[in-house]
Amino acid sequence: MITKEQLKGNKKLSIFIDCPLQRKSESGNIDVFQIGVWKDEYIWDKLINRSDLDNTYAVIRNTIPFHSDWNWLMKVVDKIETIKYNEKYVVVNIALTGCYIYCKGNKSLSINLFSDSKIDAVWNACAEFVDWYNKNCNKS
């Protein structure tokens, strides 16, 4: 079962990578969670019913898999590594049960987390990075 912390963190990561989440409804239509465009962090149940979408990325909202699926989590890592801060790229180092996210020459970005498992460490570091990014880079 997914925890509230995982649900909140997964939603944060979804917003960060502009990922529209989808699920098949009982009627067979696909409900799209327009997470990437939501401004309110706690809005969760706004749906647009569409039947013309492919369900390749269909997931049920309570099982958004960033916390448990490397394929999903690496989409976040990939996006983090495309970000430049003060003309230098952000680096994500993953090893054993730890994750270190930093930007060379920038002391304000240094996230170094360890956990019981590698995926937990990376997931937590990515969630913490998104908080840092939203505070320091995403001024809208």
Features:
140 residues; Double Stranded RNA Binding Domain; three-stranded antiparallel beta sheet; globular
Describe the structure.
With 140 residues, the chain is an alpha+beta fold. It has two domains: 4-64, no CATH class; 67-136, Double Stranded RNA Binding Domain, CATH 3.30.160. Helix content is 31%, strand content 26%. It contains three helices and seven strands, in the order H-E-E-E-H-E-E-E-E-H. It has a four-stranded antiparallel beta sheet with strand order 4-5-6-7, covered by helices on one side. Strands 1-2-3 form a three-stranded antiparallel beta sheet, with no helix packed on it. Helix 1 (4-16) packs across helix 3 (118-136) and helix 2 runs parallel beside helix 3 (118-136). The longest helix has 19 residues, at 118-136. The radius of gyration is 16 Å and the shape is globular.
Structural class: alpha+beta
User: What's the story with the biggest beta sheet?
Assistant: 4 strands, antiparallel
Number of domains: 2
Overall number of strands: 7
Shape: globular
CATH architecture of the largest domain: 2-Layer Sandwich
Output the helix-strand order.
HEEEHEEEEH
Q: Any low-confidence stretches, pLDDT <50, length ≥5? A: 33-62
Gap between N and C termini: 35 Å
Helix content: 25-40%
Residue-averaged pLDDT: 75
Radius of gyration of CA atoms, rounded to a whole number = 16 Å
* Adjacency order of strands in the biggest sheet: 4-5-6-7
**Helix count, per DSSP?**
3
CATH class of the largest domain: Alpha Beta
Strand coverage percent: 25-35%
Provide the CATH topology of the largest domain: Double Stranded RNA Binding Domain
